[in-house]
Amino acid sequence: MFRKDFHVKSNIAIRGSDRRKLRSNLAEQLPSLSADEVIPNKDAMTVKKVFTHADYTVMVYCLNGDPVFFEWEKQLYPTVYLLWKYPGILPCLITWPPVLDKMVGGADLMLPGVVVPSFGLPEIAKRQLCAICLPDSGAPVAIGIATMSSADMIASGMKGKGVQTLHCYKDFLWKQGSKSNPPTIPFPNVQSTLSEEDSGANPQTNESSEVKPPTDDIQQLNLNGTSAEPNSTSINEQLIAATGAEGDTAELPAASGESAVEGDGVTETGGATGGTEDVVEDEEVEDDIPPAVKMDRLLYQCLLHSLKCKVKKSDLPLLTSTFYKNHILPCCPRNQTLDVKKSSYKKFSKFLQAMQQEHLLTVKTEKKGIDNVVDIDRSHPDVRAFEIPEGDTNDEDDVQGGKPTNSEAVWSSPEIKEFFQVTTKMLPVLKCAGYRQGAWMTAEEVRKAVTDYVKQEELADRTDRRLVVLDPVLHDAVMKKTEPSTTHLAWDKLFTRSYRELTRGHQLVLGNPGIATENQRMKKGNIEPIELKIQRKAGNKLVTLITRLETFGIDPKDFSHRIQKGVSASSSVSALPGQGQGQQVLVQGNQVNYVDKLLTEHYKLPRKYIRGLELAPKSGKRR
Question: pTM of this prediction?
Fold first, then answer.
């Protein structure tokens, strides 16, 4: 939750009433803590209202400068600073330091990364708050919510996600405090349990026997949580062998080929996320997979697709920007959107570095800021085993070089018909033509009905045929009470006033022009055009917002996919606030010119139904 920096909206001293309310909530939600001891009256305490990078609103309570609690969705959670003072208030799972490094980057704790000592796991219920420690100390370094009970963890063979990480040591919430390191704290509960067992098993030799600390027991385990052989290598040697170098945290060996962490770009033994052979035996529930992992898998899939089908030896050397735009993006499935910034790599250059370590390709830097792909390895096992999913080819609708192609089925321009509904005020005039109140009429039908009424009542001026004499019925229908009374009106003004007194409506006919379908209904009011807006975000960056695409039968996700490939920029689709308000497409940069081209050339939409085209960047030099 705090893997990225957050925005502090307010930072104020907590009032006495709020302090008492906090004690009450703390006693209710964490009864193992003494609220009066944790929240003393005289110590300085502040509360910060922060907005995280994921748009969560969180209240952070600080005591003497250190955050001790944070409140999210009306639930209080302790920070590592508080847990270092009261380490026994939460059940604690044990993991390895390299796994912690991944958790700092936003990963959740996977069960293969959990150490299972001989004394077993602590009792944990599903959705219970728990702490995470390292083998050398009982000081918690992270907190999270258990996705399953400890019994289910053992029953699953220690596979799958174990803890959803909320906060950990070295994240940005920890940086709000004194930035102190975890203290060395023994495992008191475990030591007492072991000493009781030893005293019960050897009552006569209790004085001479030594209690084995849990760290000694833990060090007898290998990375999979099983007991190590007497002659096996040390833990540090195993970690160095697993990561390739001391201190490197690229990957941990995991049981049955499953990753110890989730949320970074490296998971199964086969390499980066998205490989086709290294599949976790127990498939994870789709909702439990973090968005970063999904994007990592999609990015890796697109890379394998491009290496197998798109890139030719004759194309090399290839600029990495061209490689991404013309080879990676076109391999993205139609119903998905590829965005490197939403992956764990954040930058395409970092992704290529990781793939180079997997020996999938070779990247060389020509000069600062200019990288080239100089070689690819189609003999790599992942490339050879990759199979293109059915319906995954996008060659027919690729949009490259900023120009949409027309190789796919031609998109028919929507036909928009204008209608007028008979109102009570105009009913006396129009009922002579057979229309009833609430009936819909076209503009031509309104003109004909008004003309028939004038002819029927012989209201045409005999001296000037351009004027119409207003009888009491026609006068009340087209004139407002606040307007001065008049006896004559010109024909064009009579028709204009007639339209004004009727309720406007429209009918949108999708598909081929002139062919209506049964589900096309009349709607009151004028049709709202597609609206383009330019917003300036943090860092002086511009984004383009497109709304009301659904009005014209355009799928926002398909539109986002097309514009993303067309301009090689990040795009996303989100719901507008309010029920039934539709969705909006956000694309990085000022892309009004390309949106105009896409809507008018591909979707055949007239420009009069596009609002905001004047926001396009001005071309040419100033004179």
Answer: 0.37
